[in-house]
Amino acid sequence: MNEADIDAVAAIRVRGWQHAYAGIVPRTRLDAMTVEDDAEQRRKWFARPRRRSTDLVAVDAADVPVGWICFGPYRGRSSAAGREEASGWEEEAGEIYALYVRPDLIGRGAGRALLAEAHALMGLDERGQGFRTVVLWVLEANRRARRFYERSGYRADGGTQDDVYDDVTLTELRYRHALRRCDR
Hints:
This protein is of the alpha+beta class. The protein has helices at residues 6-20, 27-32, 35-47, 110-122, 143-151; strands at residues 54-59, 65-73, 93-101, 133-139, 155-165, 168-178.
C-alpha cells in the first residue's frame, strides 16, 4: 500500500464495516461512518514516523485496490477480566489489525491472498518478521468472519474483549494461529 491507495482503502474499510457488521453494530454507528473521515484517519496513521504496522492491498486487473490488510506486532489487548497475564507466546506474536475486502468481491480469494501474504511477511522464513504466532480479534456475532478465519487455521483461544458502540456492548474473541516456516 502507498499513500495514493488511502482513499480506496478508506472506501473498502467503511463499506466493509457497513456490510459485515449490519445487524451487529448499531445502525446509527454504521450510518455515521464516512469515507472522508476514515481517509483522514488513514492518512494520520500512515504518516506516523514510528509506525510498526504493514499495510498491503489486493488490486484488480486495472490496479485498483479491492482489499486491504494491516498487521504488525501483537498489541497485547486487555481481556474482559482485565490485563491478560503473559504466558510467553505474546513476545513472538504478530497481529492482524484489520482485513477488509470490497463487499461485492467477498468469497473470490482476495482475503485469502492478503492473509497468506501477511503470514509470509510475519513468519519465520527469510521474508518474515520472525513471529511464531499471529492473533486477531473478531466480533463474536460475526459468524462469517469467524468461519473464514477458522478455515484459515485460526482457533479461538479464550481471550475476550468488550467494545461499546452507541451504548451496545459487543464481545470480541481472540483467535490465534501458529505460523509455520513458510505459511503461504
